[in-house]
Known about the structure:
Chain B: Keywords: Iron, Iron-sulfur, Metal-binding, Plasmid, S-adenosyl-L-methionine. By secondary structure, chain A is of the alpha/beta class. Chain A contains 17 helices and 14 strands.
Amino acid sequence: MHTITLREGADLDGFRRAVRRLAAARTAPEAVLWSVGAPSLFGDEAPALENGPPVFLPQAVGQLIETVVCHGDPERYALLYRLVWRVLNGERALLDQHADPLVHRLERLDKAVRRDIHKMHAFLRFRALPALDGGERYIAWFEPDHHIVEAVAPFFVERFESMVWTILTPKGSLHWDRHRLMTGPPAERPDSLTDDRFAEGWLRYYESTFNPARVNPTAMRAEMPRKYWANMPETAAIPAMVRSAPARVQAMLEAEAAIPRRRMPEKAVAAMAKQAPDSLAELNRLIQRSEPLVPGATQAVLGEGPEGAAIAIVGEQPGDQEDREGRPFVGPAGQLLTAALEEAGVDRGGLYLTNAVKHFKFVQRGKRRIHQSPTSGEVKHYRWWLMTELGFVRPRLVVALGATAALALSGRPVSVLRERGPMAFDGRNGDGRNGDGWNGFVTVHPSYLLRLPGDEERRRAQAEFVADLRRAAALA
Amino acid sequence: MDDALIEKLGILADAAKYDASCASSGAKPRSGGKEGLGSTTGAGICHAYTPDGRCVSLLKILLTNHCLFDCVYCINRRSSNVRRARFTVAEVVELTLGFYKRNCIEGLFLSSGIIRSPDHTMEQMMLVARTLRRDHGFAGYIHLKTIPEASPWLIEQAGLWADRLSINLELPTDHSLKAFAPEKNGGTIKAVMGQVNERIVEAKEERRRFSPAGQSTQLIVGADDATDRSVLETSGTLYQRYGLRRVYYSAFSPIPEASSVLPVKPPPLQRENRLYQADWLLRYYGFTVEEIASGGEGGMLDLGIDPKLAWALKNRERFPVDVNRADREMLLRVPGLGARAVDKILSARRHTRLRMEDLGRLSSGLRRARPFLIAADYHPVGGLTDRLDLRQRLVTPSSQLSLF
Ligand code: SF4
């Protein structure tokens, strides 16, 4: 008979070493006596067993072991070793056999531990204490059923990484100082867990969120058994809440239906009708306050030009230089546009210039900010702003530069080279109200011209662009 | 936290409690790290239960219970005489962080009465979420109830910060919406659902963050004369057409300051339970609305037994089902067998022919399933499913059970 003594608590390492040694010696489960005795979880290490070679187990078995060693059942190691033995002796898929009595029993232990962990995640309450550095320190007391203190630590570290906290339990304790996790010995319930006003507020919240017309304490106790109540400040209110519930409901039912005090639907209707911004300046303030709907962007780039301009020109989105200066069409493409307008005999100052998307979208590569085209979803996000903006400007003609602008204005993908020329834009307001629509015109974006490879080709394309601008000006 | 704030908290939590949505599930796992606060685990955690058996997972409050509107079923409607209060954005942020740090909640569920204008209200709610996320690195769960009458740009801004957006339909038919919420418009509500759904789908394709835990809605049951069938038809459409994650059913509950248009007696709470069970069959068990409704009478579900059992009793010729041979679809239709038990059966029967004793270890609902099953060592004698008293034999104790 082999006797194996493991540490008190969840001795995963000890169990692993024992399994290696037993498996190497091909020791059958019947020949092993498991006992738990060495000092507690966080005390001295038990004398190291001599090691055997690693044992390869299916992942699911490893996971089950990790959980079940936390259980308080003194038989857990014997059961686990029987499982390991059978898996190593040909029953690789043993865990799939949920009807097998051993598997079934282990699954129940596994479930109990998981439930305990879950309840500790849920029902543990921190109290705040002033800390030496002027900040706050948080402390909690909890009594788990099983040896789960180490198992719950990652959850609390991840969730409350920026806080300093201590968790005390009769099975061990945890302390987190924002950098390091320290484990400590079992603790006694601290007798002075003072509550601050947040605890008082929480109690009021808890009482107020209860609906007396649905009282069902049985269902409550099934999920939140009594044994947890001692550590949850809010549960102090339960008896009174349950006791007063019938009377509260009776009072509601007996009360006469309320006589309407004031009914002024006009107010509600007016509030709905009059909520969109009522001037271009107000819309622009709104755009500036809003978060970019594309990644990147240091600021929103607003449209520029006189309200009532005969022509509005809509580009894709601000580029690097526009983003820095906060003005549209000031980068290389903008300069090209200015030159082309001049050549077409159109005064840039009389136009309204804006973009379909109001923010620069880019990825950072070293020092360079590389422009990224907006996706169709992002274009749709900005549509409400663009349509509202054009609604204030009321141009006679809207010129879309490039595919993105054409998509934003028409609501469908447009092939610019094939469809360039006049086009009706539906002008639907982003809020679903039907506007009048716009006389539109589609042409290329000047940045397309910048990217053309040959001089000859570029010259021809630029001439076509100027011709488009001239045609558009004639239509307006 | 001073007395005045505690007082407001009382009023604005009380006003929010009639909303059934409380879940904090569905968000991608993440955490706030060294500088921020909090995490989401994907599954959501109930931090407490109140004596009505419902869980407390989120700080569920209204920004304000002042309201310009006059929806009959709502305690906050402008013609009601309740006490009014109003939080500032900063106060909601302070409460959320304070309770979160004490491990009382998973995050915030924020709703509001409509003040000044729908846009103004929605903007305040969005600002709460933005402040929490941007200024405090808050990584907990945020659920915002959108104001359907607000401008689309605001709802899009809200979706940048929230884990979930919900838009409460409240009443299942356009007809009752007209009668009970005279200034509201079913079309507008559904248009917003459509917009939000479209944005969620796009964002997913483009790997952006927009209401990553989807959208949900609530239907009030028993305030109007809508049948369970029409409630479920509405849900079916919402799941299919708008990709909703959840439809919550809230049995109309007597409210103080009730309007005289409302029924005096609340509907049995059991009706809500049956609807949740039916909803479950709709989403995970391959049932159609038609099939579920056929288990009851006159468009109403049977209050005495769950809808799956009701369907089975009306379709006895499909039973008993051989657990060692039947396909998944049919096993899922056996009363008492849940999806998890069915999956265990399917995996276990690859290794062995299942006997009753095995099934007892695979399912906790065997007592109810028994008459509908064939196992290796068991065949219901004399066609047990034909016995007239089957319903009585199955219902007596289980009718006490409640879903919550
Ligand atoms: S708009 Fe909302 S808060 Fe206002 S009365 Fe209607 S349901 Fe209640």
